[in-house]
Specification:
- One of its GO terms (biological process) is steroid biosynthetic process.
- GO terms for molecular function: oxidoreductase activity, acting on the CH-OH group of donors, NAD or NADP as acceptor.
- The chain is α/β, with parallel strands linked by helices.
- It contains eleven helices and 15 strands.
- Strand 1, helix 1 and strand 2 form a beta-alpha-beta unit.
- The longest helix has 21 residues.
- It is globular, with a radius of gyration of 19 Å.
- About 50% of the residues are buried.
């Protein structure tokens, strides 16, 4: 199978591309900046997801697409997020139609269905739109809706929403927690007792490969969205503390009441872009995510995709500690 993978510069999609190549699939990695191919079955293709022409060229001869390229974070204008996440997805759908590609795995995020309250043991709800300040979540929600609407008798589309992916080499969740802990700037919203799902990187990779194999026009997962996680909810406090323990850094977060954190976040997200270019330490959306429970029923994903996580969180923390020891 020849597969176009967008966003392969990330830990997750890079791992997906590597494992697909290892099993014998022919992979085209579509990225803005490319280097020498890491595998004989991987072709590196330079391009911008917003450029329909280069994307269509990269998709020539492909049987399937895993679309993970996106603008992430909270900094940037709505136009920037929309052009990459929404227009980029439209270009993917056009390329799939033009080349008669029959499989599409859209890499989404649980935040597309986030409405501010706790989620405890629920299944994936439909993406919602209308957020005024959460550009990432809003643009990803609009893009997911478009992707799933494109599911048809010719193109099978499935959306995966991996929840808090972490592991060795992760610069997002792990990197930020460890950096802030080292600097004495780690913040805990509320008590830290809210239960949250997370996903060890190996399991997130295998879930996307399982989705690629499972989706097809008319398949049980076609037209559906699934939240992916280890299915082992832990408190925010435990997740952060064990990441710090694995890295060998002191865990002494500053606790901020949830209401105050949301208020601070609202102010910061308005002022920060005027004075800084890096990611702000807090926004209202981040405060809501850290201060409320978020864990999901994994049975639909496991049954429909014929997939189960193989690395437990406890084993993941051991592997993370080993990685930090080796890279120290």
């Amino acid at each position: 199978m020849k597969v176009l993978v967008t966003g392969a510069g990330s830990l997750l999609l890079g791992g997906v591309a590597q494992q697909l190549a290892d099993r014998g699939d022919e992979i085209v990695c579509f990225q803005r900046r490319v280097s020498e191919s890491p595998h004989q079955n991987i072709t590196m293709f330079a391009g911008d997801i917003r450029d329909r022409g280069s994307l269509t060229e990269a998709a020539v001869g492909c049987d399937a697409i895993i679309h993970g390229a996106a603008r992430v974070g909270v900094m940037g204008s709505w136009e920037d997020f929309y052009s990459t996440n929404v227009d980029g997805t439209i270009n993917i759908l056009r390329a799939a139609t033009e080349h008669r590609i029959s499989k599409l795995v859209y890499v989404s995020t649980p935040s597309v269905a986030h409405v501010g309250h706790a989620i405890e043991g629920d299944v994936a709800k439909p993406a919602t739109t209308g957020r005024k300040h959460a550009h990432y979540a809003e643009s990803k929600a609009q893009a997911e809706i478009l992707a799933l609407q494109a599911n048809s008798a010719e193109l099978g589309v499935v959306a995966l929403r991996p929840h808090l992916v972490w592991g060795p080499g992760d610069t997002q969740l792990v990197g930020r927690i460890v950096d802030r802990a080292r600097q004495g700037r780690l913040v805990m919203v509320g008590s830290g007792h809210a239960l949250v799902d997370s996903t060890y990187i190996d399991n997130a990779i295998s879930a996307h490969i399982a989705a690629l194999d499972a989706v097809a026009p008319g398949s049980v997962c076609a037209g559906q969205a699934y939240v992916i996680s280890n299915g082992e909810p832990r408190t925010v406090n435990e997740l952060m503390s064990r990441i710090c323990l694995a890295a060998g850094v002191e865990f002494s977060p500053k606790h901020i009441p949830a209401v105050i954190a949301r208020n601070i976040g609202s102010v910061v997200e308005r002022i920060w872009p005027l004075i800084r270019k890096d990611e702000p330490p807090m926004t209202r959306f981040v405060a809501e995510q850290l201060g409320t429970a978020h864990w999901f029923d994994q049975r639909p994903a496991q049954e429909d995709l014929n997939w189960k996580p193989t690395v437990s969180l406890d084993e993941g923390f051991v592997r993370l500690a080993q990685w930090f020891a080796q890279t120290a």
